[in-house]
């Protein structure tokens, strides 16, 4: 049986993880904006649903 190789890379630092997460969130927002431009009716319906969710939310 071959031995499993230990991971050569150092564990990811918190700063690297935050940077990667920030990039992911930017990409996600960009994709949502593109989808909203391409499908305005669906985007409007989603906004209405979100508003209703916020109005009926109990603290």
Please give the count of helices: 2
Radius of gyration: 20 Å
Tell me the span between the first and last alpha carbons: 57 Å
General shape? flat
Task: Supply the helix-strand structural class.
Answer: mainly alpha
The run of helices and strands is HH
What does the main sheet amount to? none
The unreliable regions are none
Helix content: over 70%
Beta-strand fraction estimate: under 5%
Q: Can you tag this structure with a few keywords?
A:
single chain, 59 residues, mainly alpha, 71% helix, 0% strand, flat
Description:
This protein has 59 residues and is mainly alpha-helical. The protein contains two helices and no strands. The chain has a domain of 40 residues. The longest helix has 25 residues. 0% of the residues are buried.
In short:
With 59 residues, the chain is an all-alpha fold.
Helices and strands, with pairings:
Layout lengths: L13 H25 L1 H17 L3
Helix pairs in contact: 1-2
């Amino acid at each position: 049986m071959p031995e499993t190789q230990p991971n050569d890379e150092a564990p990811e630092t918190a700063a690297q993880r935050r940077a990667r997460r920030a990039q992911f969130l930017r990409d996600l927002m960009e994709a949502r904006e593109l989808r909203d431009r391409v499908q305005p009716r669906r985007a409007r319906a989603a906004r209405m649903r979100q508003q209703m969710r916020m109005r009926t939310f109990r603290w």
